């Protein structure tokens, strides 16, 4: 019969076996006698340790008797039938034993009462139970599985004595202890102390000038007095006179230019017969020439002598006292 036409279940329990968990829902409203007796035996703990003793014909697995009074009659409902595996049934003459179907058992209609079904894919535990080895030439199990306990979550009957609503037991709860969550250690970061240490380290650093670290005469350790500024300014025109002397040497007239203006090259008179200026004497007083400046003056002196001996004309005309060439 299709599950859509079946009535809704009204009770629920969990069977914990040695091979796993069986979640069971019961039709307590449709089969009150059989369901009530089954729930009373579960609450009293009469099924604890009861084995699954046999597998008659390979169609059902049957538990052992627990010694209670039999129901004595079969309860039936046209909407619930032996039409599939995973159904919970009971025989009217049994003393508390119940069976679980392994296939379609239509031949049991009117002979046993179907009062529950397995849910939540727990039928795999039934397969492990019925897969146990059987005795030779017998339907009994050689090493049977057994029921550890049965917990009732929804009894449906409010007058059941000794019932306490509890969460279903699981194998993981029975075997594995609950793990405690590790406590995380908190680390406190203090930035203020680190900042104070850095400030103290920076305050101990002394900044020194380059003239204190290097032995260089060009670096002045002290600020020069204001009185020396006049001597520094007096050096500027002296440098310009030195440059004028150098230009006079470069533009000195040749002998041919002297003849054009009516003077001999050896004659000291006239504006064109000027004696050569000694560049070494152009050095201003109180001023020390560098080595580069001395070499430049020497080269200018040599150029002047060479040009006077060769009597070469300059590349431009000279103006001697405003006379025409």
UniProtKB/TrEMBL annotation:
Lineage top rank: taxon: Eukaryota
Biased composition range(s): Basic residues: 177-187
Region (Disordered): 171-198, 218-325
Domain PPIase cyclophilin-type: 14-122
SUPFAM superfamilies assigned to the protein according to its UniProt record, in alphabetical order: Cyclophilin-like
InterPro entries membership: Cyclophilin-like_dom_sf, Cyclophilin-type_PPIase_dom, Cyclophilin_A-like
Pfam family, one: Pro_isomerase
Predominant localisation class: nucleus
Listed Polar residues bias regions: 237-248, 309-325
Gene Ontology CC entries for this record: catalytic step 2 spliceosome
Compositionally biased intervals (Basic and acidic residues): 249-266, 284-304
Catalytic activity: [protein]-peptidylproline (omega=180) = [protein]-peptidylproline (omega=0)
UniProt subcellular location: Nucleus
GO molecular function: peptidyl-prolyl cis-trans isomerase activity
Keywords: Nucleus
Family of this protein: Belongs to the cyclophilin-type PPIase family. CWC27 subfamily.
Name of protein: KLTH0E12276p
């Amino acid at each position: 019969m299709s599950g859509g036409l079946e009535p809704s279940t009204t009770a629920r329990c969990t069977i914990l076996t040695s091979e796993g968990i069986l979640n069971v829902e019961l039709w307590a409203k449709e089969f009150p006698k059989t369901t009530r007796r089954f729930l009373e035996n579960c609450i009293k703990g009469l099924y604890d340790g009861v084995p699954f003793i046999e597998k008659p014909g390979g169609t059902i697995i049957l538990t052992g008797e627990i010694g209670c009074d039999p129901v004595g009659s079969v309860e039936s409902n046209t909407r619930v039938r032996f039409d599939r595996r995973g159904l919970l049934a009971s025989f009217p003459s049994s003393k508390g034993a119940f069976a679980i179907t392994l296939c379609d058992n239509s031949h049991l209609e009117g002979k046993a009462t179907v009062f529950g079904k397995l849910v939540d894919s727990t039928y795999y535990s039934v397969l492990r139970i019925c897969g146990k080895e059987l005795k030779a030439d017998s339907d009994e199990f050689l090493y049977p599985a057994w029921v550890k306990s049965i917990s009732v979550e929804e009894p449906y009957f409010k007058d059941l004595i000794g019932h306490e609503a509890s969460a279903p037991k699981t194998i993981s709860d029975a075997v594995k202890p609950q793990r405690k969550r590790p406590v995380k250690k908190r680390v406190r970061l203090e930035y203020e102390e680190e900042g104070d240490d850095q400030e103290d380290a920076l305050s101990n650093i002394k900044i020194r000038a380059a003239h204190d670290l290097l032995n260089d005469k060009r670096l002045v350790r002290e600020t020069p007095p204001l009185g020396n500024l006049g001597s520094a300014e007096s050096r500027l025109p002296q440098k310009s006179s030195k440059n004028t002397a150098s230009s006079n040497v470069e533009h000195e007239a040749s002998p041919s230019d002297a003849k054009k203006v009516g003077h001999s090259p050896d004659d000291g008179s006239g504006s064109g017969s000027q004696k050569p200026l000694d560049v070494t004497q152009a050095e201003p007083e109180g001023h020390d020439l560098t080595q580069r400046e001395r070499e430049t003056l020497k080269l200018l002196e040599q150029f002047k002598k060479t040009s006077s001996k060769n009597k070469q004309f300059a590349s431009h005309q000279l103006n001697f006292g405003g006379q025409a060439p």
